[in-house]
Design goal:
It contains 9 helices and 13 strands. With 310 residues, the chain is α+β, with helices and mostly antiparallel strands. Among the domains are: 2-66, no CATH class; 200-309, VSR Endonuclease (Endonuclease, Chain A). The strands form 5 sheets. Strands 10-11-12-13 form a 4-stranded mixed beta sheet, sandwiched between helices. It has a 3-stranded mixed beta sheet with strand order 1-2-3. The chain has a two-stranded antiparallel ribbon with strand order 4-5. A hairpin with a 6-residue loop joins strand 2 and strand 3. Helix 7 (204-216) packs across helix 9 (292-309). The chain starts with a strand and ends with a helix. The model is unreliable at 1-7 and 188-198 (pLDDT under 50).
């Protein structure tokens, strides 16, 4: 190693990395040496870094640096903080307090002021909203709130003009919405009737009833959509008769009243479509489990009904 005594910092940093540089401790004022490459890397990280000859001087110097005198924002008394605590607390809030009681008192006062400010702003917004609704020509109730209806639209069902706040709205009322749903359901049902996952499940009693009818009337068909997209459980073209074997979900709310209402509305539309084709509807109510006696009773009743038709 080569020992050199350099006068300026530029000369010290411009020397080779394997040169020992003389330094002076800022705590005990003792002279010591250090490799140039370590001094240069430390200087690049922090140019104002202090020099320490040993770990003891380093700990003493850091203790001196970390102690900060602060004045409380509420009681105005002086207290001491570490440098780390001071940096954290000064980042989070501008005002610093000597204790939790002072901080709680000051925060309670500020929070109360902020709540009053928020209430005043809310009242102003409510008044502006009421004035906007009162001055509007057309108002609509959308998403649990009255809104200004400034878009002029045309209903795709009844072709009437109406006003709404949403530009993509296409239907004017609930009646038109129900009509449109029926139209879409009819189109979808007629297109997807041939797919296997749209075939309805059949009960055991219905299957036994179909086999018995098929022995007498070979032209009988089961679950075919031949009435403008609607079907029936058993269809006998020679008699112009459609047999419906209705389970308990047609009469009881097994999965909710809404589903029961939808099933009953579908049944009414199905019966009407079948009558328009010149067929008669024969409805069988099955509210129990599989029973051959039930099937025999309903089959005999069905034969009596057919004899009256002839």
């Amino acid at each position: 190693m080569v020992y050199m005594l350099l006068t300026t910092l530029d000369e010290m940093l411009s020397t080779k990395y394997n040169v020992m540089i003389p330094l002076r401790c800022d705590i005990c004022m003792k002279d010591y040496t250090k490799l140039q490459k370590y001094v240069k890397s430390e200087y690049k990280k922090s140019p104002n870094k202090k020099n320490f000859c040993c770990k003891k001087c380093q700990s003493n110097g850091q203790r001196r640096i970390r102690l900060v005198n602060v004045i409380c924002a509420l009681c105005h008394c002086e207290f001491i903080l570490n440098q780390k605590d001071y940096n954290k607390r000064s980042k989070n809030s501008r005002s610093l307090y000597c204790s939790k009681s002072c901080a709680n008192k000051h925060n309670f006062h500020n929070r109360r002021f902020d709540l009053d400010k928020i209430k005043n702003a809310r009242n102003r917004s409510i008044e502006a909203y009421k004035a906007k609704i009162d001055n509007a020509d057309h108002v609509v109730f959308h998403r649990k709130k009255l809104r200004v209806a400034d878009k002029k639209l045309v209903c795709m069902v009844c072709l009437k003009t109406f006003f709404h706040c949403v530009a993509s709205k296409k239907i004017c009322s609930d009646n038109c919405r129900d009509i449109r749903r029926k139209q879409i359901g009819h189109i979808g049902g007629s297109k997807t009737s041939a797919l296997p996952f749209h075939i309805r499940s059949r009960s055991s009693n219905e299957k036994i009833m179909f086999t018995k009818i098929l022995e007498i009337y070979p032209d009988a068909i089961s679950n075919k959509r031949m009435f403008n997209g609607w079907d029936a459980d058993i269809i006998i073209p020679s008699l112009k008769l459609a047999v419906h074997w209705n389970g308990p979900w047609h009469y009881k709310s097994i999965m909710g009243n809404e589903l029961l209402h939808r099933v009953q509305e579908k049944d009414k539309l199905r019966y009407k479509a079948i009558q328009d084709f010149g067929y008669c509807n024969y409805v069988i109510e099955d509210l129990g489990k599989m029973s051959i006696e039930k099937v025999e009773f309903e089959f005999n009743k069905f034969l009596q009904y057919v004899s009256q038709l002839n």
